[in-house]
Write the structure tokens for this entry.
Amino acid sequence: MQNLFNYIARKSPIHELTGATKLVCLILWTFATMMTYDTRILIALPIIAFILFGISKIRLSDVKFMLGFTLVFMVLNNILVFLFSPEHGVGLYGTCHQLLPLWGGKYLTAEQLWYHLNLVLKYMSSIPIILLFVCTTQPSEFAASLNKIGVKYSIAYSVSLALRYIPDIQKEYSEISKAQQARGVEMSKKVSLVKRLKAASSILIPMIIMSMDRIETISNAMELRGFGKNKKRTWYMARPFTAKDILSMVFCGLLLVLSIWSNVSRGTRFWSPWM
Amino acid sequence: MKNSAVKSIVAIGIGAALFFVCGRFIAIPCPIPNVTINIQYGVLAFLAAAFGPIVGLLAGLIGHALIDFSWGWGVWWSWVFATAIFGLIVGAFKKLYDVDKGEFGMKQIVRFNVTQLIAHIIAWGIVAPALDILMYAEPASKVFLQGLVAGASNIVTTAIVGTILCIAYAAAKPKKGSLKEEQ
Amino acid sequence: MIEFKNFGFKYNAQVDYTLRDINLKINPGEKILIAGPSGCGKSTLIHCLNGLIPFSLEGEREGSLTMDGKDTWDMSIFEMSKKVGTVLQDQDSQFIGLTVAEDLAFALENDAVGEPELHDRVAEIADVVNISSHLLHSPQELSGGQKQRVSLGGVMIDDVDTLLFDEPLANLDPETGKKAIELIDEIHKKTGDTVIIVEHRLEDVLWRPVDRIILMEKGRITADTTPDELLASGMLKAAGIREPLYVTALKYAGVDITPEKKSASLDTIDLTDDDKKKVRDWFNEGKTETEEKNKENILTVRDLNFTYRSDRSQAEDFHALRDIDFDLYKGEMMAVVGRNGAGKSTFSKVICGFETPDTGSMILGDIDLSTLSIKERADHIGYIMQNPNQMISKTMIFDEVAMGLRNKGTMTEEEIEERVNDTLIRTEKEGDHSCHHVHGARDNDTGRAHCRPGLQALYRDHGVP
């Protein structure tokens, strides 16, 4: 069930980077894409991302499932933005080039289309990097990485516990849900929404009670094996940084600097050909 | 309780896992297309009421971030933070409706639901849309409506699922000095 | 040395003392078995030994408990955990790492042990418990026996001098259980550690010798003696613990079991010629006739196949049921036996409609089961799950039992009440109790919740805990 998060074991330079490096890079990269609407940067980032994807030996077919969801999400979000605020781009860019009349005296504008292009580019800059992170980082290494970048080890271990018990709880849910169906609990569209929620609760009650017992037993087991004894703890899965790790983090750091510099130097987050 | 620190850590982990499983795998059909019923907020509200603000905050944060990660669309941080804030607020007023004491009557039900109502309004009416505008420069009318729909649906689910869970757990919990040997 | 003196303990949530008048000495290097029926206080005794009492479970005590001369009430849980390593009964809660290697390393990680020692020690201990080839496996990919070996390795890595096993056989089939007992024995001999096994499956534990058996009943120690003495005493049966089957057989044959006959193991047992003759005679007269009854076929299964499909391309499909044919007759009591992973639970899930078979037919009376939903099948077949906690969703026993009838929606509340009370009387329970307060009895309660008239077959998964 490690596969819930789609880790794919292959040999590649990206896989060889430590989890902590990839996490730092992911954060820097995400901020770099989030900060700016400078289209020039937003074109450069997806290109770099796709090159990295190639280096990682992750194939498109490996991630088509996740990619599909993301594309649907992206299209829906764009449609919603357009429906609610068809002239949003005009406000952002401060110019107005009307193309076609729309409803209620509003116009389809070049600025609006430009804004949507930027939204799509933002998705295309961030999605490949997130998929890359998910596919090349072993879940086991994730908690150690969090601790390494400064998250308290106790909280990092909570993340590890969540990953550890998700498959167990999922299996438990499916078993309880079938047992309750056998006793006449109905969750389908045949009954009212409130009834459906009550039905869901009758599955959740045994799950919650068992989980509360489980929290008790696991914390006992952890205490019995010395968890929380020291201020620091080591991690079996942690690996030391190499030159490649440092280089990658510096590179992503520079991208963030570039993105911030572009905003600060021009006094705006946005960029368009008309400005 | 001497081991409350370790217990909180485990509660965060298991809580995040429960949040994840409920949010990712439990599909409840809903009359409005494309709006999912998020029963995980009922679970989160219960956990916050049982373990307090830190567990509420972090179980929500980790659980929601993991859901986003598993779909692959990237972590939608504005909404993840909103979930965390919801957990934090419900947990912060734990004393008003302490399920751990084994009592969850009418008084506690009302207090719990008023708190969750306010917490959802803050999370989806203020935190999520504000962060959406700030981070993603999305139009205000769109993000506020999204927040409104999500908030309203979450309030209903929390009111039903959260309340039922609190009642059931409080009733199942043995009270001090109440158990006799029984064979 | 561990020593209890006039020791007693009461949990805060309880009215009565769970442990009373405990006087027990455990010497270094001893291997002892603590046995007793459910609710006798075994678990509480374990908590006292590993330090969870008083550190996380609060209550009052009387008398004293010392470990190497030091009162455990003055020690921290970390200090205790360096002396006593506990292998819990619940393997899934004990296995907290994402992989075998991480779980083995857990205690060392907490001690902030660095490289290369961390990896070396894990490799070393993995070898001792024979799990080296699975270091990067997740707990979901391991069998119960393997998980237990990991748990054992995880506590041994801390160099404890006492190993405490809480019902080590609970989730294992007999064959795997034997292997577990062999491994414990091997480690005991190799390390010279004190070994304390708490278990009621006596015969399986005695597969390898133990020094002493402590018998507990209602919170007190009722026997503290060698296995040979205890088996000869007849106290086990009185306490409700099953003695080894061969001992029961010998008693049926009229053999008088005395301590001198060393009945603790089939390897050591020493019978007189007279005894041997008694056994032979008993065997010869014991041939029973099997009578053919007039049978009405109630469930017919033909050519049943089922495969667990993996959700992703990497993992392999698992063909769990192959070409199953069988008939069940009315009023018959049938047991499905097999080792862990043999497909017993899968079979029951397919019958109840939780899983859909690849091929094959299941005919109940004259109904084809494949046409019925889970809910509709439940009108004919009652299913009790292995873990009763998964089924209880109501607070009060009455409501739990009534739930299925209420969901059907065809009866009035009075009729339901009458039927529920009838069921509860037959099974000797009071409906105004809370489900979760009835310790050790939950299992039976779920059974009752399903004892509804009109059921044609009652299916029980792992009925004997």
About this structure: Chain A has two domains: 2-138+240-266, 152-224. Residues 2-138+240-266 of chain A form one domain.
